[in-house]
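[recover] target loaded
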Protein backbone atom coordinates (compact mmCIF):
# COMPACT_ATOMS: atom_id res chain seq x y z
CA UNK A 1 0.00 0.00 0.00
CA UNK A 2 2.93 2.32 0.67
CA UNK A 3 4.04 1.91 -2.96
CA UNK A 4 0.55 2.90 -4.14
CA UNK A 5 0.69 6.01 -1.98
CA UNK A 6 4.04 6.98 -3.52
CA UNK A 7 2.66 6.42 -7.04
CA UNK A 8 -0.40 8.54 -6.26
CA UNK A 9 1.68 11.28 -4.63
CA UNK A 10 3.85 11.38 -7.76
CA UNK A 11 0.70 11.84 -9.87
CA UNK A 12 -0.54 14.65 -7.57
CA UNK A 13 2.88 16.34 -7.59
CA UNK A 14 2.90 16.23 -11.40
CA UNK A 15 -0.63 17.65 -11.50
CA UNK A 16 0.28 20.51 -9.16
CA UNK A 17 3.43 21.27 -11.19
CA UNK A 18 1.61 21.13 -14.58
CA UNK A 19 4.03 18.28 -15.46
CA UNK A 20 2.04 15.87 -17.64
CA UNK A 21 4.89 13.38 -18.10
CA UNK A 22 5.23 13.08 -14.31
CA UNK A 23 1.46 12.68 -13.97
CA UNK A 24 1.33 9.75 -16.39
CA UNK A 25 4.62 8.08 -15.41
CA UNK A 26 2.79 5.25 -13.62
CA UNK A 27 -0.20 4.95 -15.96
CA UNK A 28 -0.86 1.81 -17.95
CA UNK A 29 -1.26 2.44 -21.69
CA UNK A 30 -4.90 1.37 -21.43
CA UNK A 31 -5.76 3.92 -18.70
CA UNK A 32 -9.44 4.79 -18.38
CA UNK A 33 -10.28 8.16 -16.85
CA UNK A 34 -13.72 9.25 -15.69
CA UNK A 35 -14.78 12.56 -14.24
CA UNK A 36 -17.97 12.53 -12.19
CA UNK A 37 -19.54 15.81 -11.10
CA UNK A 38 -22.73 16.00 -9.06
CA UNK A 39 -23.31 12.28 -9.63
CA UNK A 40 -23.05 12.46 -13.43
CA UNK A 41 -20.20 11.29 -15.64
CA UNK A 42 -19.18 14.33 -17.67
CA UNK A 43 -15.98 12.97 -19.22
CA UNK A 44 -14.57 9.56 -20.11
CA UNK A 45 -11.15 9.09 -21.70
CA UNK A 46 -9.62 5.83 -22.91
CA UNK A 47 -5.91 5.31 -23.41
CA UNK A 48 -2.79 7.25 -22.63
CA UNK A 49 -2.98 9.54 -25.69
CA UNK A 50 -6.52 10.73 -24.93
CA UNK A 51 -5.62 11.37 -21.29
CA UNK A 52 -2.41 13.20 -22.19
CA UNK A 53 -4.15 15.36 -24.82
CA UNK A 54 -6.87 16.36 -22.34
CA UNK A 55 -4.34 17.04 -19.58
CA UNK A 56 -2.38 19.33 -21.92
CA UNK A 57 -5.60 21.18 -22.84
CA UNK A 58 -6.61 21.54 -19.16
CA UNK A 59 -3.32 23.27 -18.34
CA UNK A 60 -4.68 26.34 -20.15
CA UNK A 61 -7.62 26.64 -17.74
CA UNK A 62 -5.63 27.44 -14.59
CA UNK A 63 -2.78 29.78 -13.70
CA UNK A 64 -2.34 27.84 -10.45
CA UNK A 65 -3.78 24.58 -9.20
CA UNK A 66 -3.12 22.41 -6.19
CA UNK A 67 -4.55 19.15 -4.97
CA UNK A 68 -3.78 18.20 -1.37
CA UNK A 69 -4.40 14.64 -0.21
CA UNK A 70 -6.27 14.54 3.10
CA UNK A 71 -6.94 10.78 3.35
CA UNK A 72 -5.90 7.49 1.75
CA UNK A 73 -8.31 4.50 1.77
CA UNK A 74 -7.02 1.18 0.43
CA UNK A 75 -8.89 -1.88 -0.82
CA UNK A 76 -7.76 -4.92 -2.81
CA UNK A 77 -6.94 -3.28 -6.15
CA UNK A 78 -8.01 0.31 -5.50
CA UNK A 79 -6.88 3.27 -3.47
CA UNK A 80 -9.18 6.24 -2.91
CA UNK A 81 -7.98 9.63 -1.80
CA UNK A 82 -9.89 12.55 -0.40
CA UNK A 83 -8.56 15.85 -1.70
CA UNK A 84 -8.77 19.54 -1.09
CA UNK A 85 -8.50 21.45 -4.36
CA UNK A 86 -7.55 25.06 -4.94
CA UNK A 87 -7.09 26.75 -8.30
CA UNK A 88 -6.99 30.15 -9.93
CA UNK A 89 -8.68 30.44 -13.31
CA UNK A 90 -6.52 31.52 -16.24
CA UNK A 91 -9.49 32.33 -18.49
CA UNK A 92 -13.18 33.20 -18.43
CA UNK A 93 -15.55 30.22 -18.52
CA UNK A 94 -18.95 29.92 -20.26
CA UNK A 95 -20.64 29.29 -16.89
CA UNK A 96 -19.80 32.84 -15.75
CA UNK A 97 -16.64 32.10 -13.78
CA UNK A 98 -14.00 34.76 -14.47
CA UNK A 99 -10.26 34.80 -15.07
CA UNK A 100 -8.47 35.27 -11.74
CA UNK A 101 -11.31 33.74 -9.74
CA UNK A 102 -10.24 31.25 -7.08
CA UNK A 103 -11.82 27.81 -6.80
CA UNK A 104 -11.90 25.88 -3.54
CA UNK A 105 -13.37 22.39 -3.77
CA UNK A 106 -13.22 19.03 -2.09
CA UNK A 107 -13.39 15.75 -3.90
CA UNK A 108 -12.27 12.19 -4.17
CA UNK A 109 -10.13 10.31 -6.67
CA UNK A 110 -10.16 6.54 -7.00
CA UNK A 111 -7.09 4.88 -8.49
CA UNK A 112 -7.34 1.27 -9.69
CA UNK A 113 -4.07 -0.65 -9.94
CA UNK A 114 -2.77 -3.65 -11.86
CA UNK A 115 0.88 -4.65 -11.40
CA UNK A 116 1.76 -1.29 -9.82
CA UNK A 117 0.35 0.63 -12.78
CA UNK A 118 -2.73 2.84 -12.68
CA UNK A 119 -5.31 1.33 -15.04
CA UNK A 120 -8.31 3.46 -14.05
CA UNK A 121 -8.70 6.88 -12.45
CA UNK A 122 -12.04 8.29 -11.40
CA UNK A 123 -12.30 11.89 -10.16
CA UNK A 124 -15.45 12.66 -8.18
CA UNK A 125 -16.57 16.15 -7.18
CA UNK A 126 -19.78 17.74 -5.96
Amino acid sequence: MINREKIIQNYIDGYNQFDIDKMIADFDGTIVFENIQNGEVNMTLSGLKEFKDQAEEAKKYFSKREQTITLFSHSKSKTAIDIDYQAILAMDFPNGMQKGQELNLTGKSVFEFLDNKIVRLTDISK
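[recover] notes: The mean pLDDT is 95.
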